[in-house]
Design a protein that fits this description.
Elements: H1 9-35, H2 43-71
Helix pairs in contact: 1-2
């Protein structure tokens, strides 16, 4: 994979943040499938999936914000 070879630390943070947001959406879909299945109760698995979605979502946003902040250090003023 020559594409990833040129990644700097901020670009890796943005990439990892996007992966965490992907996992966040997968956990959310799993929560939705468990909690709203007909004729069953969600049980503790629903809460676990929802908490995992929340944690990965917040972590993904924090990582992406840190990477974007490092990359935008050169453009901190008016043009």
């Amino acid at each position: 994979m020559t594409f990833f070879r040129g990644f700097t630390a901020p670009l890796w943070e943005i990439f990892a943040g996007n992966l965490l947001l992907l996992f966040c959406s997968l956990f959310y879909l799993a929560w939705w499938a468990v909690s709203f299945r007909p004729n069953t109760s969600g049980g503790p698995a629903g809460g676990l999936f929802l908490a995992s979605a929340f944690i990965t979502g917040i972590a993904g946003i924090a990582l992406m914000s840190a990477g974007i902040d490092q990359l935008s250090g050169d453009s901190k003023g008016l043009p």
